[in-house]
Design brief:
mainly beta, 7-stranded mixed β-sheet
């Protein structure tokens, strides 16, 4: 892990997301991390689908950890996801994903 990024592995945190097609899907958090380079927090998650090669589909977004709310009765978290739009941020996410896979 790089000195400029702090990874926090979160397990069993589930939330619902709405796809671009308008479908509601349950997602599972793989891990979150904060980047001192960007000053942002990122969430890496999956909807547990697989691609044509059998690899689990993984997504990443920006989020505000202070705004995450947990619903005890449903076991789901409520959070707002912000798209990652810059190449520099994607490079940071890809580096963390490679380190997590090792």
């Amino acid at each position: 892990m790089t000195d400029s990024n702090k990874t926090k592995f979160q397990q069993n945190i589930h939330f619902n997301a709405i796809t671009p097609e308008g479908m509601l899907v349950e997602c599972e958090t793989l891990f979150t991390f904060e980047s001192t380079e960007t000053g942002r927090s990122y969430i890496v998650y999956t909807d547990n689908t697989t691609d044509e090669d059998g690899n689990t589909t993984v997504y990443a977004s920006i989020y505000d950890p202070a705004a995450v709310e947990f619903n005890e009765s449903s076991g789901l978290a409520a959070l707002s996801l912000i798209p990652i739009e810059t190449e520099d941020e994607w490079l940071i996410v890809e580096q963390i994903l490679q380190e997590a896979a090792e």
